Every structure is written in structure tokens, then in C-alpha cells.
Amino acid sequence: MSTAESVGNQFGYLCPKCKQGDDLSVVVQVWAKLFPDGTDADGDHEFDGPSSAKCACGWNGKVSQLLLADDFED
Hints:
By secondary structure, the protein is mostly beta strands. It has one helix and seven strands, in the order αβββββββ.
């Protein structure tokens, strides 16, 4: 089983509070084209260490504070 399958996200991140990775969210940046009737996301989205992150358990912080599952493997 890969880290992504066992943790719940392809980045191998875990919440520092509950040590789970299947209910994390991060704030991403994406370019969007502006149109008279709204916007349309254009291209890939990005996030990095200073990006805001949160977990369903109530933890809020930064991506840089998330734990890496690989650090817990023997």
C-alpha cells in the first residue's frame, strides 16, 4: 500500500493534532479568467509552506506545520 493510500492524501501529510491525513484542506492559489458573468479557473493550482491548512478535527495552521507520514515509518 502506498503512502497516499494509507494516509488519505497523495502528499503524505498528517494533521499534527489528530495524526490523520484523510480530512485535511489547504488554501490554494489559482489563476482565474475574468468574464462578464463570473470567473473560470485556468490551469493548475498551487500551495506551499505558508499556505493555510485545516483539519476536520479542529486544527488550523500552515502547511509547513503538517507532519509527513514518511517520518513515522520504520
